[in-house]
Fold each of these.
Amino acid sequence: MAALLPSSRPPRAELHVHLEGTLEPDLAFELAARNGVGLPYPDPASLRAAYEFEDLQSFLDLYTAGMSVLRTEADFADLTRAYLARVARAGVRHAEISFDPQAHLVRGVPLEAVVGGIARVLERSEAEHGISTLLIAAFHRDRDSAEALDVLERLLAMDAPIVGVGLDNAEVGYPPRLFQDVFARAELAGLRRTAHAGEEGPAANVREALDALHAERIDHGISVVQDPGLVARVVEQEVPFTVCPVSNVRLRAVPSLAEHPLPAMIEAGMLVSINSDDPPYFDAYVDDVDDAVTAAYGLTRDQRAGLAAASFRGSFLAQDRVDVHLAEVEAWRTAGA
Ligand code: HPA
Ligand code: ZN
């Protein structure tokens, strides 16, 4: 009988997730033992208990420390496989996954191990998990842009299977324009472009990401609501925003879901999707985020379908693939009517 009931969850794309931010404490301990790396916690439960954050930087400190267990190609493969297996149960049909090459290069982990481990799992994702995937190389905005440009050249030279580039890490004090050359090079190479902007920083960072970086998509972007003229522009240009409401609350960019600008962004007609960012760190995969916003805002099935549709429309997939997914979302919407 259960199989005949309409699924409780819409099919969706996840567009904003950091692969390194999907590291579950159990896997962290398993990899630590395998690689002989020490962790400053006695067990997975105490590591998880440390996931209380003051702001973005306090999270980034732990996120960066957690990565110390990722050393070999097999580690990156295991990490990628674990994320895909988990979100297959969350209704995810397409995932655009970011990774942070510089975070591993600075620790002496070769780019080939990082990219090779991720790529070999992504290649089989559609067959094994029913999830199509695209990979995004994100650059650290709090490091020198010359280093980012060098890493981009290396990714291009090795023909890494990336669809695009992103920009992440500490936002305040590191405006998008610092990475103009990197993004121009990416554009010249035919890569797609997304950037974190307006997470802790001002709406001006969203504008600058669009104008200086030619960003096609904005990650977070919640401060855009402070600039009504910019909201009108992104509505008119249908710029996708990958919003992570639970992350924003956990990193104290906003005090609570009740005070989060997501409903205002939707109401304004923006193309917004909901995403997890770094799921175990915020105790919420994208299905949990769906539950949280549905409860907080009393979303209807139609509104949830609207968010799921926006996730596909905001993706870097070809239009014919988007259309197939939109038909599936529509079937889910009407199945509950
Ligand atoms: N913001 C910036 N950098 C990040 C984030 C985030 O939310 N998650 C992982 N790296
Ligand atoms: Zn992010």
Amino acid sequence: MSEAEIDWDSLTFSLTQTDFMYIATCNLGGVWEPGKVLPYGKLEIDPAAGVLNYGQGIFEGMKAQRSAEGNVVLFRPEENARRFQRGADRLGMPPVPESIFIDAVEQMVAANNRWIPPTGRGALYIRPVLWGTGAIMGVAPAPSYTLCIFVTPVGPYFKGGLSCIDLLISDEFHRAAPGGSGGVKAIGNYAPGMMPSINAKKQGYAEVIYLDAEEHLYVEEVGAANFFCIKDNVIYTPELTGTILPGITRASLIDIARHKGYEVIEQKVSTELAMSADEAFCCGTAAVISPIGSITHGETEKVYQNRTVGKITRELYDTLVGINTETVEDTFGWMHKVNLDLTINHA
Ligand code: PLP
Ligand code: COI
């Protein structure tokens, strides 16, 4: 497929192969050197690779967008670089230096420029992954690592964009436990959520809400997005306890809301608080802000705002998307303009 054949208005959150990918490698205990840009294609991998056998891998998710100013912009890429480093540390992998990470992301955006959707009609989703690709038999860090970055044009993560989603609280399954890997984007965190998510979808829900694994009382996350609720004009979001992914969208919305004068409380959010709130939404790079129309827990269903977008949810959405598309002033200095003429290090 060529970009000319894409119907930008029908984009979903799915994979379209683009032109180029980025690859760098490093040995355990070694130092990362800048990698190369190659045509997008299949990789060869040893069956004994650490990532294939023991899940030694992490990923990131970022978006490049064409702004209303005509720039191609990234949102806080240094935060993704730092989270990627924390994840690498947690999984015993050599962390990629921030400068190499950001330069690689920029090269991927510039090289795949023609796949960036027109302003306001989607984004180029950027997927950096770090895998233990060296062969290893014992359960130990792989001897070598591959940083790979690929990109794909995407539309909304949940069907319908800014339309309300119905969610189901799981009493049976958990995403993460204290001391585990829930606080980093370990690839192994995601497969265990697939079966619960499929079952929820079969029942008509968009996703599962996971509770804490110790007391089963507190909301942690919505699949692959962070949770917020609003009650009496106070904004609540689960505090970071190590089991919740520290979302960059989450942190940014806390800053935006406080800047607007809202009280934002990071605390344990009980199901009672969540289900007595006036508004609720989940957020993330892929999900942006997805307003929640209802939450079901056992026999109880809570409907928010008659399944319409709440006022504060809308206000936060407009500001976040406005900053992202350079139609709202970037008071926080978050937007990172990509130089599309930068040198691309082709293999
Ligand atoms: N929670 C989980 C489990 C995720 O995978 C993501 C996606 O990255 C998020 C939350 C949202 O994080 P961010 O806002 O940095 O994309
Ligand atoms: C993101 O929001 O970027 C994610 O990584 C979510 C999901 C697609 C795993």
Amino acid sequence: MDSILVRGGRALTGRIPIAGSKNACLTLMPAALLTDEPLTLTNAPRLADVRTMATLLQSLGCEVAHLQDGRVLVVGAETIASHRADYDIVRRMRASVLVLGPLLAREGRAIVSLPGGCAIGARPVDLHLQALAALGAELDLRDGYVHAAAPRGLVGARFAFPIVSVGATENLMMTATLARGTTVIENAACEPEIVDLARCLRRMGAAIEGEGTGTIVVEGVERLHGATHPVIADRIELGTYMLAPAIAGGEVELVGGERGLVAAFADKLEATGIEIAETPGGLRVARPGDGIRPVDVVTEPFPGFPTDLQAQMMALLTLAEGTSRLEERIFENRFMHAPELMRMGARIDVHGGTATVTGVDALRGAPVMATDLRASVSLILAGLAAEGETRVARVYHLDRGYERVEEKLSACGAAIERVAESKSETG
Ligand code: UD1
């Protein structure tokens, strides 16, 4: 397994292109199951999770072509050969559960493994199941699998989510496109990935309105057809790279970045003293000479501060001039990066869902280990600012969600490289 070596202390200057959104792509790909015509996704990110979703769809009988070096994906579900999403694939990636609704809507049956444990909390799928049951799905949990059937077809209904769930909103939206009648989704997630999915489904012939608000209305149609859809920019990759010059110093342009995708995060970053400006091609982020001011952060569903940027923000706040509080309200156990940052000299106190971070003058490089995707990249950000060398081990998490992180950062002057485990162990 590879490691990433970072030698800290270099200010960054340059441009970083922002890729298509991982999370959007992972829900757009299963949407192809809703039609027998091909769905073409442009601006696709080249990531391990996208390849895992492709493998899952292929196991169901889809054809998946990666064109233009993986930037364009064509998913064709002309015939569904299998209705079973196997544990071997689902356990690797929770987003696999997004095939459940589309398979059921198209075929009237689906068997999907339960995702099992996850490093960032229980993350059950009960809301996905409740939402599908509301449309008349018959659900049976046995042998670690959800057996779903809709022998007489699905019927639109009103469903109010008890808590906001991105994935469950996506599953219900996709399923409702082919149900008979009207589905009203209340307390729906408002994330940009939901808006992107709605746009894509409309291109495929679906009747949806209200995406981006708490109430989404889907009018079922007889059939959907093929379409071509560009994946939106990855707001989490954008926020992550906005933090790179913030923590390391310097000035970087994020090409393709839009402030509206990360507004709550950008407001907090500015409150720390970082400068953000819109440019014709994206956003420019600069750290003026002064220190970082502490801020308090609470993670919330969109448009609040995203949980997927909490770890990276914490890396910056370890160097603030004062004490910051980060409250995690979306996932339990999402502070696994804290002990690793502490090995680099950070002062962090975690109590339940709140981390209190007392800024230190400097971080020191250390061997650290990543425990999930966003935690991994927070350690790389910390490494950019730390004195000496930081080695981030087990970077397969990183490859699930960040395209060529070392190339993007080294193009801006960072001293960062990927090394094979054997070399990193000896060197
Ligand atoms: C998606 C994102 C993930 C992000 C998260 C929150 C993808 C592939 N992943 O995950 O990067 O961190 O949104 O913005 O898009 N919950 C239940 N029952 C369910 C489903 C969820 O209790 O059936 C809980 C979860 O444990 C969590 C909360 O609801 O506490 C929100 O999770 P959810 O929005 O569903 O996250 P995902 O869609 O899995």
